């Protein structure tokens, strides 16, 4: 299957700082990327959907000014957690898909964010 | 708004048994449905993808079925092994990919 690389896998940051997470599709062009967060022992909650070259569409309750998503190229999307607080500590996972609504979704390995 | 439900939430069975995990979704206008496994603290491993026009997909000891009209999918695991212990997630896809809460499976040696 196709490969999606997410970086970093783990990050610890201080409250008030910003953290950027990268999601790269290594061997295909990802026209659509999805970002999720997962709290311990819970499922993946969709945060936003981004299409290459367009502004991301955020789910209800997700602050777009806090979670900045950029999808400037067909192989890279970034999620920046701005002014991070301890409650932002979570597991963040990205997904990338090729063009077409019935295409398979490929997932990154996830990023464990801890805000201290 | 699509809602995906998985039953049971947790399951423990002796090694060697066959088992079925259930997934239901409220909006049948999906493009496809995907099953994943997730080990503790890890990312997702894709198991099977069923397109909306398909009824089932098989990979090794795994078989997934899809009844789009009734909004249901099942994941059948044959001859379960301790290494199958994990959380199994189903996800429906329309313009978004929505996950169920998962089934935590524990295979007893």
Question: What structural keywords apply?
Answer:
heterodimer; A: 116 residues; mainly beta; seven-stranded mixed β-sheet; four-stranded antiparallel β-sheet; 11 strands; 0% helix; globular; B: 109 residues
Task: Please tell me about this protein's structure.
- The complex is a heterodimer of chains A (116) and B (109).
- By secondary structure, chain A is mainly beta.
- Chain A is 0% helix and 53% strand.
- Chain A is built from no helices and 11 strands.
- In chain A, the strands form 2 sheets. In chain A, strands 2, 4, 5, 6, 9, 10 and 11 form a 7-stranded mixed sheet that branches. In chain A, strands 1-3-8-7 form a 4-stranded antiparallel sheet, with no helix packed on it.
- In chain A, strand 5 and strand 6 (57-58) form a beta hairpin.
- Chain A is globular, with a radius of gyration of 13 Å.
- The mean pLDDT of chain A is 93.
- Chain B has 109 residues and is mainly β.
- Chain B contains no helices and 11 strands.
- Chain B has strands at residues 4-7, 10-14, 19-25, 32-38, 44-51, 56-59, 62-67, 72-77, 86-93, 97-99, 103-108.
- In chain B, the strands form 2 sheets. In chain B, strands 2, 4, 5, 9, 10 and 11 form a 6-stranded mixed sheet that branches.
- In chain B, strand 6 (56-59) and strand 7 (62-67) form a beta hairpin.
How is this fold's topology laid out?
The complex is a heterodimer of chains A (116) and B (109).
Chain A: E1 4-7, E2 10-13, E3 19-25, E4 32-38, E5 44-51, E6 57-58, E7 67-73, E8 76-81, E9 90-97, E10 105-107, E11 111-115
Parallel strand pairs in A: 2-11
Antiparallel strand pairs in A: 1-3, 3-8, 4-5, 4-9, 5-6, 7-8, 9-10, 9-11
Chain B: E1 4-7, E2 10-14, E3 19-25, E4 32-38, E5 44-51, E6 56-59, E7 62-67, E8 72-77, E9 86-93, E10 97-99, E11 103-108
Parallel strand pairs in B: 2-11
Antiparallel strand pairs in B: 1-3, 3-8, 4-5, 4-9, 6-7, 7-8, 9-10, 9-11
């Amino acid at each position: 299957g196709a490969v999606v690389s997410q970086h970093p896998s783990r990050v610890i940051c201080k409250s008030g700082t910003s953290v950027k997470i990268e999601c790269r599709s290594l061997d295909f062009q990802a026209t659509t990327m999805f970002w999720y967060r997962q709290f311990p022992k819970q499922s993946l909650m969709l945060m936003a959907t981004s299409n290459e070259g367009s502004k991301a569409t955020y789910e209800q309750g997700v602050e777009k000014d806090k979670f900045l998503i950029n999808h400037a190229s067909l192989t890279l999307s970034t999620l920046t957690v701005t002014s991070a607080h301890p409650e932002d500590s979570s597991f963040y996972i990205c997904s990338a898909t090729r063009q077409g609504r019935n295409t398979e979704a490929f997932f990154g390995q996830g990023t464990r964010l801890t805000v201290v | 708004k699509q809602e995906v439900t998985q039953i049971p939430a947790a399951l423990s069975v002796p090694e060697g048994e066959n088992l079925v995990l259930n997934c239901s979704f409220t909006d049948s206008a999906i493009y496809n449905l995907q099953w994943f496994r997730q080990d503790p603290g890890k990312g997702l491993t894709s198991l099977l993808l069923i397109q909306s026009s398909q009824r089932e997909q098989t990979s090794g000891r795994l078989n997934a079925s899809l009844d789009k009209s009734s909004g249901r999918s099942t994941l059948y695991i044959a001859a379960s092994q301790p290494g199958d212990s994990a959380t199994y997630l189903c996800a429906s896809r329309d313009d978004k990919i929505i996950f169920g809460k998962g089934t935590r499976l524990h295979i007893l040696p």
